[in-house]
Hints:
The protein is of the alpha+beta class and 88 residues long. Helices cover 25% and strands 26% of the residues. It has one domain (2-63). The chain has helices at residues 11-21, 42-52, and strands at residues 2-4, 26-27, 31-33, 57-59, 66-68, 74-78, 81-84. The protein is globular.
Amino acid sequence: MSLNFNNPVGPEAESLIKELFGKPIAEDGKTFLFDQQLELHQKKMTELANKAGQPATVELNSDGEIKTLRDGTRYQVTPKGWRKLQAE
């Protein structure tokens, strides 16, 4: 699962993300990657979007899907969770 924002979020939103979902496997302030698929509650997601000052998009990522963080680091979904890919 990934949680995505258009712009970097502030410390209050990051704190709420960790409170709601736990520590991400990887994150860059805009994209947060989690190994487990979590239960989502509309009220909490609305609170998060309000704290971040922007919409939050949740993606249920499938095996083989790749996400690239702002620094160019790439992660791929495997049956065991996100795996960091080697630089090309």
